TrEMBL record:
Protein name per its UniProtKB record: tRNA (guanine-N(1)-)-methyltransferase
Compartments, as annotated in UniProt: Cytoplasm
Record bears the keyword Manganese: no
Species this protein is from: Sphingomonas yabuuchiae
Entry similarity comment: Belongs to the RNA methyltransferase TrmD family.
Enzyme class: transferase
Function per UniProt: Specifically methylates guanosine-37 in various tRNAs.
UniProt binding sites for S-adenosyl-L-methionine: G111, I131, G132, D133, Y134, I135, L136
E.C. numbers: 2.1.1.228
Length: 239
């Protein structure tokens, strides 16, 4: 089964973009995954091909119309989940990425302007997703991020099957720091334990550093990790 991605966008020329290069690009050329774009404007019904209108209740900007977007979504509806990239969505997590990557693919709806008419989400089973607490010009960059995160997990894309196992977020912790040659650079040396050849000590050091860095840099992740580790019930919204 080939992982298939369909992008609903006003700017199909933005794809595959960076996904046409490196590991994702090679996998795309090898048909390990598939990508198609759908121009949302093709589903407009007036002579101006309008996809947006002024906000109900007043305000700046324009809002994407529910009727046009629903027609676009319905045109590609199948067994794949439909995700809308929006800062109002739930944060994208590595566990969710793994779930998506394990499935048949994904349809991604890219927002623009002031966002979506909320009735679209009331009427269709669309998952709202955010890639961070900041605002982009549109959902296309978010879609690229989401797809890159998924594609690298597909079978045969990364060089080694274990390549992604110890990365940040896979265990609920940030990844431990990495080093390579030269052994000394600008007076700074690789930690002695990493040159010891003692794999047990190396594993212990790496875990300790992962815990230390997560605790200091991402206390939110550390609290979640500790809660899961000791069996504390997660707060609502953590799952």
């Amino acid at each position: 089964m080939t992982f298939r991605a369909t992008i609903l966008t006003l700017y199909p020329e933005m794809f595959p973009g960076p996904l046409g290069h490196s590991l994702a690009g090679r996998a795309l050329r090898e048909d390990r995954w598939g990508l198609e774009t759908v121009q949302i404007r093709d589903f407009a019904t007036d002579k101006h091909r309008s996809v947006d209108d002024t906000p109900a209740g007043g305000g700046a900007g324009m809002v994407l119309r529910a009727d046009v977007l629903a027609a676009a979504v319905d045109s590609v509806a199948d067994d794949r989940p439909v995700l809308a990239m929006t800062p109002r969505g739930r944060p994208l997590t590595q566990p969710r990425v793994r779930e998506i990557a394990a499935g048949p693919g994904v349809t991604i709806l890219c927002g623009r302007f002031e966002g979506f008419d909320e009735r679209l989400f009331d009427a269709r089973g669309i998952e709202q997703v955010s890639i961070g607490d900041y605002i982009l010009s549109g959902g296309e960059m978010g879609a690229l991020v989401l797809l890159d995160a998924c594609v690298r997990l597909l079978p045969g894309v990364m060089g080694a099957a274990s390549s992604g196992v110890e990365e940040s977020f896979e265990s609920g912790l940030l990844e431990y720091p990495q080093y390579t040659r030269p052994a000394e650079w600008e007076g700074r040396t690789i930690p002695e334990v990493l040159r010891s050849g003692d794999h047990a000590k190396i594993a212990k050091w790496r875990h300790a550093r992962a815990c230390e860095d997560t605790r200091s840099r991402r206390p939110d992740l550390w609290e979640r990790h500790e809660g899961v580790r000791v069996g504390r019930p997660l707060a609502r919204g953590d799952d």
